[in-house]
Design brief:
The complex is a heterodimer of chains A (about 475) and B (about 230). With about 475 residues, chain A is an alpha/beta fold. Chain A is about 50% helix and about 10% strand. With about 230 residues, chain B is an alpha/beta fold. The chains are: A alpha/beta (about 475), B alpha/beta (about 230). The interface between A and B is large, with 102 and 85 residues. The complex binds iron/sulfur cluster. Iron/sulfur cluster (SF4) binds near residues 317, 320, 321, 322 and 376 of chain A. Chain B: It holds the Pfam family LUD_dom. Chain B: This is L-lactate dehydrogenase complex protein LldG. Chain B: It comes from Xanthobacter flavus.
């Protein structure tokens, strides 16, 4: 999918999303589904919080020694017969992948789910040079045939309902009998399985992401439930892994620590179905597996983040828990964020990757309720980092226009009081959260009703508030909720 | 490596070093990294898997079932051929199974299941049922650990609709760390086979309205044949 950036129009995107009824129907299932499952999985493992500490410490150690672990990874992957390529930016990474595909005369490329592929806009680029990219994760396949971007980092098609999927399948799989029954999710899945099976067997190159890279052994790891990533990397002539440089961990033991919190935080499983460790190409006596193995390690701004507060973001393992628990995400969905990474992680990562000018709206798209940080398995202080961006923005641009714009986004959420309700009831358990999430959507009529929730907790961050008050006094045009306080 | 690759590599490393304020030559940093790689400390291993054998096998079975797979506990490996035949019969599948060259599978008394047709090799996607021998099982999550190679081709884990996996009770560990040590003992420090597959239940997707459905791209059914060890 192309990476047209609509982040600067976040407020408009959000307004549209709030008025989009099918989207609101789909979003109403996000909280109830994920929150309870994560809570139950965490509850069942007494060591869960201890493992979060361990996972955080492992990544902190790795990031502090990233140069050395990367050197080791590179040496071990090469010793196993693999190729390691470093890419400074998206264009660099696209060129590396295209060169490999063209050298192999590839016409079709199957793809496992990869956020890096989205970040570098790989599919459009491959198509432009005459190579057909086929997404094989069911969710990614759905959005590919619709020409959309993912709206969630682990459930890319979470914004769709099954009627929309049925309509798309009838449109795209026109060679199948029109009278076939596609009314149930099972029949939709069976059809996708059949269609994609052919693609898997015909593909010349398989491209996957990586959940982790292991320095000890020169190994890349993918974690999936469908098995699509495994078919993608096993059947074609070459396997290309797209990874950003912070995916590194030192040892197999280290990744085992982090894997214990990944699936539990993401889907509430103890372990995802397929956790696959790949090292080099097929060995001389292997009857299957790819003949070539390439790892493309992308920087794209991350090495610069190592130097400051934002280093903490590089611990992220893309589990999705922060967006699953985010009232703003629940309200507007992933597309409103306007680029590849939605939710709280998107709000802190996007300005770093696409620039603060384009991404500056996102750190304001927060109620500062703190739920994201509470559930983040890597203990990333997401609200603190959002404040970091806001403060940076206010320090840099104190022109009234800029500030009004920044406040505009914040006030947009502030006026929708129901977004703040979760923050007032943090102590409630997962079950009551479910009930409330449903009730909230029953009362969606947008601006109405905000007055009864006016006393939402003030956002933390003295700089922001102080500046806001000062600016309001100056302008004598106080936003409504301030005036009536 | 092309010159573009080389210069990109230099740029990335220079930027990392600048951000970290390091040269990569600092002896204490190099030592810390070498120590971690050589010592591979285990971290926090859940108590759940640290059980005596009978309880460990019981936990393994419970977790396999929790992951939506099925399991037979057989007194000995000699029972495997009949158990495979019984599985295929119960699912109304053709009496054909594809397996790799694993000696532990080759030496089974296949004559005990005369109706069963046993083929050897990787899968090309046309077989309905495949049989593999696991390197290990992990009780804490009901995971089977598969290693690639001619003994147990990776395609058998993925392409057939039904994947049957033999696990020796003696190979069921409580935790992943024990399995890593056994893999190191076989392949050497810092070396893995091309593919290590942890498999926890059959393939699934929840991408359509978050409805969990089994059999997305990989096997629709995973059936574990646990062999030997105490039964409870
Ligand atoms: S920031 Fe934390 S919760 Fe969000 S995706 Fe990353 S690891 Fe998961």
């Amino acid at each position: 999918m192309s990476v047209e950036i609509t982040t600067p129009r976040f407020k408009d995107n959000a307004k549209k999303a709030l008025a989009d009824l099918p989207l609101q129907g789909a979003l109403s299932k996000v909280g109830p589904g994920f929150i309870g499952k994560r809570a139950a999985a965490a509850e069942k493992l007494p060591e869960f919080d201890g493992l979060r500490d361990s996972a955080r410490d492992i990544k902190n150690h790795t990031l502090a020694h990233l140069d050395l672990y990367l050197e080791r990874f590179e040496a071990k992957a090469k010793a196993a017969g693999g190729h390691v390529h470093f890419a400074v930016d998206a264009a660099d990474a696209r060129a590396i992948v295209t060169d490999i595909c063209q050298r192999l005369g590839a016409r079709t490329v199957t793809k496992g789910k990869s956020m890096i592929s989205e970040e570098i806009g790989l599919n459009d680029h491959l198509a432009a040079v005459g190579i057909e990219p086929v997404e094989t994760d069911l969710g990614e396949y759905l959005i590919q045939i619709r020409g959309e971007a993912p709206s969630h980092i682990i459930a890319p098609a979470i914004h769709l309902n099954k009627d929309q999927v049925e309509a798309d399948f009838r449109r795209v799989h026109a060679h199948l009998p029109p009278e076939r029954d596609l009314s149930e999710p099972t029949s939709l899945l069976a059809e996708a399985r059949g269609e994609l099976r052919q693609k898997f067997l015909a593909a010349d190159v398989g491209i996957t992401g990586a959940n982790f890279l292991v320095a000890e052994t020169g190994t890349s790891i993918i974690v999936t439930n469908e098995g699509n990533g495994d078919l993608t990397q096993t059947l074609p002539k070459a396997h290309i892994v797209l990874a950003s440089l912070e995916k590194l961990v030192p040892t197999l033991e280290d990744v085992s620590q982090i894997l214990r919190v990944l699936a539990r935080s993401a889907t509430g499983q103890d372990m995802s179905v397929y956790t696959t460790f790949s090292t080099g190409p097929r060995r001389p006596d292997d009857p299957d597996g790819p003949g070539e193995y390439h790892v493309v390690i992308l920087d794209n701004g991350r090495s610069a983040m190592l130097g400051g507060q934002l280093r903490e973001v590089l611990r992220c393992i893309r589990c999705g828990a922060c967006m699953n628990h985010c009232p703003v995400y629940h309200a507007v969905g992933g597309h409103a964020y306007g680029w590849v990474y939605p939710g709280p992680i998107g709000s802190v990562l996007t300005p770093a990757l696409i620039g603060v000018e384009k991404g500056r709206n996102l750190p304001n798209a927060s109620t500062f309720c703190g739920r994201c940080e509470e559930v983040c398995p890597m203990r990333i202080p997401l609200p603190k980092l959002m404040r970091h961006w806001r403060e940076k923005e206010f320090e840099r641009h104190l022109t009234p226009a800029t500030q009004r714009f920044g406040l505009g986004v914040w006030a947009f959420f502030a006026r929708r009081g129901w977004l703040y309700r979760p923050a007032t009831r943090l102590a409630m358990g997962a079950l009551s959260l479910l009930g409330r999430a449903k009730g909230r959507f029953a009362s969606l009529p947008l601006a109405g009703g905000w007055t009864q929730h006016r006393d939402f907790p003030a956002p933390q961050g003295g700089t922001f508030q102080a500046q806001w008050r000062a600016r309001q006094a100056e302008r004598r045009a106080a936003p409504r909720q301030e005036a009536s306080r | 490596m092309s010159s573009r690759d080389t210069s990109s590599r230099d740029t990335v490393f220079a930027s990392i070093r600048a951000s970290l304020g390091v040269t990569s030559q600092e002896a204490p940093r190099r030592q810390a990294v070498a120590d971690r790689l050589a010592g591979h400390p285990r971290g926090l291993v859940p108590a759940r898997g640290q059980l005596p054998e009978a309880e460990r096998l019981a936990l393994f079975r419970d977790m396999v079932i929790a992951a939506a797979a099925t399991i037979d506990h057989l007194p000995s490996a000699a029972e495997v051929p009949e158990a495979v035949a019984a599985y295929l019969r119960s699912r109304n599948l053709p009496m054909t199974i594809l397996r790799g060259a694993d000696a532990r599978l080759a030496t089974l008394p296949w004559e005990r299941a005369p109706a069963l047709d046993v083929w050897i090799g990787p899968s090309d996607g046309r077989q309905l049922a495949g049989l593999s021998h696991a390197f290990a099982g992990v009780a804490e999550s009901g995971t089977v650990v598969m290693l690639s190679g001619p003994e147990n081709p990776s395609t058998l884990n993925l392409l057939p609709d039904h994947h049957l996996v033999v696990v020796d009770a003696a190979d069921v560990a409580g935790d992943y760390e024990t399995v890593w040590d056994r893999i190191r003992a076989r392949y050497g420090e810092g070396v893995l086979p091309r593919t290590v597959n942890w498999i926890t239940g059959p393939s699934r997707s929840a991408d359509i309205e978050q409805t969990l459905l089994l059999g997305a791209h990989g096997p629709r059914s995973l059936h574990v044949l646990l062999v030997g060890g105490p039964t409870r």
